[in-house]
From TrEMBL:
Domain UvrC family homology region profile residue range list: 272-471
Name under which the protein is recorded: UvrABC system protein C
Subunit structure: Interacts with UvrB in an incision complex.
Cytoplasm in keyword set: yes
Species this protein is from: Christiangramia oceanisediminis
Top-level taxonomy: Bacteria, Pseudomonadati, Bacteroidota, Flavobacteriia, Flavobacteriales
CDD domains, per the entry: GIY-YIG_UvrC_Cho
Biological processes per GO annotation: nucleotide-excision repair; SOS response
UVR domain mapped to chain residues: 207-242
Length: 597
């Protein structure tokens, strides 16, 4: 049977919560989404012009819409997440994290062993985790082994086998790491008390173990067993030290998940902190690749459902930086101040650090992706119509109007292209007039590029405020390029970005990559221009001093400097040395000038 037209499919959608799926003409799944109201949400894709190019492309490919009605939004969230994982649709957010994580297992056996594992076996054993790295697991197990003596052998320590003397104590007993339950040297009741204490430590509750050790220390001290008391005190110190490193919030905060998100044009980074008894017992950040123009809220909602499933979280409350919709059973808290706000800020900081690390790694292993991300970010930050792959920056240099020059530096794909740098001697301006100088060099630069058929930049930056910017705009107008090339000015004092015809400047985040690249351009233009200016000024000063000597012309000066390399050596040269270069008559004039006395 032929599929009905999309208009018909849209009209027959229900107004209930549910999950929708888009398919192309070949029956391949394009996208999975959730909605409070299926009809409204799905219709919105076809009723408006999309800002995101990728969304527009997807909508054009949609040939069939399928939907699944569910009882509540919570069910919709879970079903959406499962379908995305199952089908991996082309246009859905991609979770770039498919590792298996380690757990701590308390084995289901008499005198249970405690060990790390990546496999969950349904044999009645207890599994705590998953943990985000083996480093965390090993740190925790080292702590446990330092506090409690546990067996590491895999013997079946059944009561009758121990009674019949089937096993003998091993080296671990003699090293003091095990109490020897295999020969009945430790009772099952005492061993299980240790296991219960370990359960609490793994959950992040150190209170019971600390109290138990303090009581033991007191008992040993009262019996004058000071060595034993000191041994217990060392355990207390180890436990308190570990606890102090873990505890970052109010101990009253218990069984809470904390989530936060930071994102850029192409990716979102969601951090998850799990809190128990005021301690962070888990921290993990996932990277999510955007396929459409997903908002931070959409990314966070998807990540919360995924992370809670992956890490088996059953906490009834979560802290987030803004309101999210993840079902009715979870209490959402958006803290504004105090300990709760601090923990959300910590989560945001973790997400930002993770993002920075990914950027550093990306520069090394995938430079193209790094450049694409930076370009997309600059386009958004500077409100440009296209990515600024080719940027040119101008700077004027003069001292009290002498030797006015200008420099143009070129960046391609956010990197200096030094072969394209250009320097200009100001020809039409008398005196120190920065505005007129800027107009001249911008005009000359782009008149030449137009005449030679060279590619034009997507962005021009002029070093200076509204005055210099207006001069640059005037030059572009004369050439008929106004509106064809974006042009902005950057004022030095407050790093203000000015746009043509807009008196109110744009202030970029001081830590943003966009501002850093603009500053790099400005500083490079200044360096290049000032070097050219100094060289020209020095050369002029040298030439002027020698040319002031009566009877000495420009050609003679050039010959002298070419041979002696500096004015100082010319002054110190003998008459014979000078004569070898410029002849005896001129040599006599210069020698007499510097040795009159």
């Amino acid at each position: 049977m032929e599929k009905p037209a999309l208009e018909v499919q849209l009209k027959t959608l229900p107004n209930n919560p549910g999950v929708y799926q888009y398919f192309d003409k070949n029956g391949k799944i394009l996208y999975v989404g959730k909605a409070k109201n299926l009809k409204k949400r799905v219709s919105s894709y076809f009723n408006k012009k999309h800002d995101s190019h990728r969304t527009g492309v997807m909508v054009k490919k949609i040939h069939e819409i399928r939907h699944i009605v569910v009882e509540s939004e919570t069910d919709a969230l879970l079903l959406e997440n499962n379908l995305i994982k199952k089908h991996q649709p082309r246009f859905n957010v991609m979770l770039k994290d498919d590792k298996t994580y380690p757990w701590i297992c308390i084995k289901n056996e008499r005198f249970p062993r405690v060990f790390p594992t990546r496999k969950l076996i349904k044999d009645g054993s207890e599994y705590y985790g998953p943990f985000t790295s083996f480093k965390t697991v090993n740190t925790l197990l080292d702590l446990i082994k330092g506090l409690y003596k546990l067996r590491t052998c895999n013997y079946d320590l059944a009561e009758d086998k121990i009674r019949d003397g089937k096993y003998k104590i091993c080296l671990e007993y003699h090293l003091g790491n095990c109490e020897g339950p295999c020969e009945g040297f430790q009772s099952e009741e005492e061993y299980n008390r240790n296991i219960e204490a370990i359960r609490q430590i793994v959950k992040g509750n150190f209170k019971d173990s600390l109290q138990r050790f303090r009581n033991q220390m007191k008992e040993h001290a009262e019996k004058m067993e000071f060595e034993d008391a000191q041994r217990i005190k060392n355990k207390i110190d180890v436990l308190e030290n570990y606890q102090s490193k873990s505890t970052v919030v109010n101990p009253k905060i218990n069984n809470v998940d904390v989530y936060s998100v930071v994102s850029d044009e192409g990716y979102g980074y969601v951090n998850f902190l799990q809190l128990s008894h005021g301690a962070i017992i888990r921290s993990h950040t996932i990277e999510m690749k955007k396929k459409l123009d997903e908002s931070d809220r959409e990314l966070l909602e998807l990540a919360i459902v995924e992370i809670r499933q992956r890490f088996n979280s059953n906490s009834k409350e979560i802290y987030v930086p803004f309101k999210v919709d993840v079902g009715e059973d979870i209490r959402i808290t958006v803290p504004k101040l105090g300990d709760k706000k601090k923990i959300v800020d910590l989560s945001v900081r973790n997400a930002k650090y993770f993002r920075q690390e990914r950027f550093k790694q990306m520069k090394i292993v995938d430079p193209d992706r790094h450049v694409n991300r930076v370009m997309a970010q600059m386009k958004e930050d500077l409100r440009l119509s296209q990515e600024p792959r080719h940027i040119e920056c101008f700077d004027n240099s003069n001292i009290q109007g002498t030797n006015p020059v200008a420099a143009c530096v070129v960046f391609k794909n956010a990197k200096p292209s030094k072969k394209d740098y250009r320097k200009f001697n100001i020809k039409t301006v008398e005196g120190p007039d920065d505005f007129a100088s800027m107009e001249e060099v911008v005009f000359r630069r782009y008149k030449r590029l137009l005449n030679e058929g060279e590619e034009l930049p997507q962005l021009i930056i002029v070093d200076g405020g509204k005055g210099q910017l207006s001069s640059g705009v005037k030059a572009l107008e004369t050439l008929g390029l106004r509106g064809k090339i974006a042009i902005i000015g950057i004022a030095k004092r407050l790093e203000e970005i000015f746009y043509p015809g807009d008196p109110i400047p744009l202030y970029l985040d001081k830590k943003s990559e966009t501002l850093k690249i603009i500053q790099q351009l400005r500083n490079e233009a200044h360096r290049f221009g000032i070097t050219f200016h100094r060289n020209k000024r020095s050369k002029t000063a040298l030439n002027t001093e020698l040319e002031e000597i009566a009877g000495i012309g420009e050609k003679t000066v050039v010959e002298l400097l070419k041979h002696f390399r500096s004015l100082k050596r010319v002054k110190e040269a003998s008459r014979d040395d000078l004569a070898e270069v410029i002849g005896s008559a001129k040599a006599a004039i210069i020698h007499n000038h510097y040795h009159q006395e």
